[in-house]
């Protein structure tokens, strides 16, 4: 889905209706099994060979992880208030550039995270529906509603969602679409979080929920052959060259004497025969001498066992 949005910038309401409906079914199936996904974003909405939604990446799903990975954002509350009033065209252009950088990043973005997740006061599976509302906004408008130039500014907008959730006049959408987004991106206590209620929303009028996966996808996926990779993201080639080793045998022989040897207090043995200011005992001196002789003669059997 991320690649689809990068290629198309925005989707039509009909296309958005199709993908949001299938994503809602996928999210609901997880909730019925007692899990919360907690990482709903376009990157994790994959398209199968027929163009239908497949939900992926359950690494943050409850039952697999104890907590959402918000460590990166723990200091975002110290950020100064933002005054980002760029028009929708500039925000869309800026987001497209940022999105391409994030495609190669492991840090991520707080754009899709519900505000209650940041508060560390407990939250329910409704946080997944918030994320779906953010994705729906992005599909129709061209960028997430809280996107900013820095994660700190994005965090501030998410936490101040009542004022930051703005629908640009130059990108008009139908009232039903706007209402659904607002029903997802709102306080957790009043958020639309039940599939039956979602299915009855006017935005999904005429959607055949029981047979949606049997109908043609909103955007056809063109696959020319079984090994066609044109629909996958392209990443820079990684440097897989081996580091230069001047003499592998020399390194091997050097480490050979330490096989199965666990004692780690040899760093203090110097020519002064003192460790931490204390005189070595006669037994320690004998053990040190036996060790040094064994290394020099490569007789591993003479190395004393670690105690």
UniProtKB/TrEMBL annotation:
<dbReference type="InterPro" id="IPR000961">
    <property type="entry name" value="AGC-kinase_C"/>
</dbReference>
<keyword id="KW-0963">Cytoplasm</keyword>
<dbReference type="InterPro" id="IPR050839">
    <property type="entry name" value="Rho-assoc_Ser/Thr_Kinase"/>
</dbReference>
<dbReference type="InterPro" id="IPR000719">
    <property type="entry name" value="Prot_kinase_dom"/>
</dbReference>
<dbReference type="GO" id="GO:0004674">
    <property type="term" value="F:protein serine/threonine kinase activity"/>
</dbReference>
<dbReference type="Pfam" id="PF00433">
    <property type="entry name" value="Pkinase_C"/>
</dbReference>
<comment type="similarity">
    <text>Belongs to the protein kinase superfamily. AGC Ser/Thr protein kinase family.</text>
</comment>
<keyword id="KW-0597">Phosphoprotein</keyword>
<dbReference type="InterPro" id="IPR011009">
    <property type="entry name" value="Kinase-like_dom_sf"/>
</dbReference>
<dbReference type="InterPro" id="IPR008271">
    <property type="entry name" value="Ser/Thr_kinase_AS"/>
</dbReference>
<dbReference type="GO" id="GO:0005524">
    <property type="term" value="F:ATP binding"/>
</dbReference>
<dbReference type="InterPro" id="IPR017892">
    <property type="entry name" value="Pkinase_C"/>
</dbReference>
<keyword id="KW-0418">Kinase</keyword>
<protein>
    <recommendedName>
        <fullName>non-specific serine/threonine protein kinase</fullName>
        <ecNumber>2.7.11.1</ecNumber>
    </recommendedName>
</protein>
<keyword id="KW-0547">Nucleotide-binding</keyword>
<keyword id="KW-0808">Transferase</keyword>
<keyword id="KW-0067">ATP-binding</keyword>
<dbReference type="Pfam" id="PF00069">
    <property type="entry name" value="Pkinase"/>
</dbReference>
<keyword id="KW-0723">Serine/threonine-protein kinase</keyword>
<feature type="domain" description="AGC-kinase C-terminal">
    <location>
        <begin position="205"/>
        <end position="273"/>
    </location>
</feature>
<dbReference type="GO" id="GO:0005737">
    <property type="term" value="C:cytoplasm"/>
</dbReference>
<feature type="domain" description="Protein kinase">
    <location>
        <begin position="1"/>
        <end position="204"/>
    </location>
</feature>
